[in-house]
Design a protein that fits this description.
By secondary structure, the chain is α/β, with parallel strands linked by helices. The protein contains eight helices and six strands.
């Protein structure tokens, strides 16, 4: 879906706990006017979710923050397709981020920090914004200045990465290695 057909949603998907620092996403949504934050995924500890919801209430963000748990694959896929950006922060997480992989699958531009394992991929191919935390002003500026044309360019680059890392591409490389 193009920019104009997507909702003003910043989507973040994870298996949530306090180590994932969910309050960092609140810092972002406070700065990004006109957008809603959707945190999708289950919570590892019920008390952590309750504590987070208290912080949401204290910061008066109830109308701008939504938690979505127990989603089916279809519901999650629809969230990726409707959201304008996927936001994911990691702290010393140097493995692949499935949220990044799924965002690429759904041609959704990314906003991530440089400690996430897929930061080099996102930065190297121009799939969105890679920041050094806690640069929320850069996120705000990026979201508000992105135009329909720029969004389409992000999506074109994402499609290029989809082709580069497709099963077909992978199979060809395997066959070339066997044949040569």
């Amino acid at each position: 879906r193009p920019f104009s057909e997507r909702e003003d949603v910043l989507l973040s998907v994870s298996f949530w706990d306090l180590g994932r620092r969910p309050w960092d996403y609140l810092d972002v949504i406070e700065k990004v006017d006109g957008y809603k934050l959707v945190l999708a995924g289950n919570w590892r500890v019920k008390a952590a979710k309750e504590k987070f919801l208290e912080v949401v209430k204290e910061r008066r963000l109830e109308d701008r923050v939504e938690l979505r748990e127990g989603l089916s694959e279809g519901e999650l896929s629809e969230l990726y397709s409707r959201s304008k950006f996927v936001v994911r922060f990691g702290y010393g997480e140097y493995g692949p981020s499935f949220a990044v992989i799924e965002a690429i699958q759904h041609t959704t531009p990314l906003i991530i920090n440089d400690e996430l394992g897929t930061a080099d991929l996102v930065k190297g191919h121009g799939l969105g914004l890679v920041i050094r935390w806690p640069d929320v002003e850069s996120i705000r500026d990026f979201v508000h200045r992105t135009t329909e044309r720029e969004y389409a360019e992000f999506q074109d680059r994402i499609r290029g990465v989809q082709k580069l890392y497709s099963w077909e591409s992978h199979s060809r490389k395997l066959v070339e290695g066997i044949v040569s």
